[in-house]
Amino acid sequence: MDEVELVEMGPRDGLQNEKRLIPAEEKIALVDALSQAGFRRIEVASFVSPKWVPQMADGAEVLAGIKRAEGVSYMALTPNLKGFERAMAAGADEVAIFASASEGFSQANINCSIAESLERFVPVMEAARAAKVKVRGYVSCVTDCPYDGDVPPAKAAQVAQELMAMGCYEVSLGDTIGAATPEKIRDMLLAVLDHVPAEQLAGHYHDTGGRALENIEMSLELGVRVFDASVGGLGGCPYAPGAAGNVATEDVHDRLVALGLATGLDRAALEAAAEIARGMRG
Ligand code: HMG
Ligand code: MG
Fold first, then answer.
1. How far is the CA of 23 from the centre of ligand 1 (A)?
2. How far apart are CA 189 and CA 173, in angstroms?
3. What pTM was estimated for this model as a whole?
4. What residue spans of 59-113 are helical by DSSP H?
5. Range of 175's domain?
6. Tens of pLDDT along 141-183?
7. Count of domains in the chain?
8. Which ligand is nearest to the CA of 50?
């Protein structure tokens, strides 16, 4: 049976959007539940500016408090060298740098242009190489940007290629606002695949428009075998009531199984984590 890997995003991408300041113990309980489900990678924290994302300020406490399961890589987002140093001090197993395919989102999210962000990642990559730490790359807004509108596929391809050239082992392609259609995902992926092989790509689709599962199926057709998801569908925009967050891990799991694909996840353990996650939503 074909294997697909789901990378769990809930404790980071999910919880970063929650308005209520969630105590570290609750985040730790969620990660510990997720550690029982069979994931190989769980993104547990981000070491960004606490002024920008107060919800993620306690990343070191979360990493210190979790019970690490064997074979699980606990990941953290790092926007710059300071973030990388904090992530290392906290014991993150691997890190991720994040860029955007659109200038508008780059400015809004990390306060610099795309080119400036790539320059800022160079010392992070150097430090990671010296510390023998793996680095994942994200490209946000690969099809749609909340500021710039439609994003040309060539732009997503260019940024993905640059992140790979810098030394990322995989690039995760983000439909940040969940506005993509399967057709747009296809066009974007075809452009990216000219530069990066499918084995080094992941799909990171938010479900705001309700089409994330279709977008995953389109990506499967084009050879992508890694997808990011958040248990319980954690996330969503606090300024758009009812808007969905990342596609729910359990929904992706069920769809993949229905398609005859294996995820290696324990469905009962996944459900237990999803229940905790749903209880955390504001
Ligand atoms: P800036 O204000 O331009 O940065 O922010 P700066 O370098 O001028 O620093 C300003 C202050 O922040 C300084 O402190 C720095 O020390 C501090 P002050 O002197 O004023 O007291 N600072 C930090 N503190 C702790 N840790 C750090 C750090 N860096 C600077 N790492 C910056 C630039 C990138 C830092 C800021 O814009 C930022 O933190 N942005 C992150 C926003 C974010 O976390 N967004 C969500 C994650 S991305 C995402 O969700 C998309 C994804 O899921 C994929 C998808 O869906 O598309 C991955
Ligand atoms: Mg995201």
1. 21
2. 9
3. 0.97
4. 59-65, 81-90, 103-110
5. 5-279
6. 999 999 999 999 999 999 999 999 999 999 999 999 999 999 9
7. 1
8. 1
